[in-house]
Write a structure and sequence with these properties.
115 residues, mainly beta, seven-stranded mixed β-sheet, four-stranded antiparallel β-sheet, globular
């Protein structure tokens, strides 16, 4: 299993970013996917998840209405559209999947929200 995140960067408060996570090594279309983040000095926190067929999505309260998770099973990619970004959204963002009982993380992509 390989997960490769991209799309992070520096953005001003109120701005937007779209993260991508390219997956390989498993049957992507069969598995739910999730996004997490970890800010300096804090525990990794769950942000959102999406069912294998995109019919069900769930969000943490802190990002509900601002972030949107989606996926393209033809491209083996899961996305996180982030709008109305705040300085407290600064963190490393990770995609996540459990395959055959094993947790898998990408290397993460840094998102910094600052003026």
């Amino acid at each position: 299993v390989q997960l490769v995140e991209s799309g992070g960067g520096l953005v001003q408060p109120g701005g937007s970013l779209k993260l991508s996570c390219a997956a390989s090594g498993f049957t992507f279309s069969s598995y739910p996917m999730a996004w997490y983040r970890q800010a300096p000095g804090k525990e990794r926190e769950w942000l959102a998840d999406i069912s294998s067929g995109s019919s069900i999505t769930n969000y943490a309260n802190d990002v509900k209405g601002r972030f949107t998770i989606s996926r393209d099973n033809a491209k083996n990619t899961v996305y996180l559209q982030m709008n109305s970004l705040r300085p407290q959204d600064t963190a490393v963002y990770y995609c996540y999947v459990v395959v055959l009982g094993r947790r898998n993380w990408g290397q993460g992509t840094q998102v910094t929200v600052s003026s």
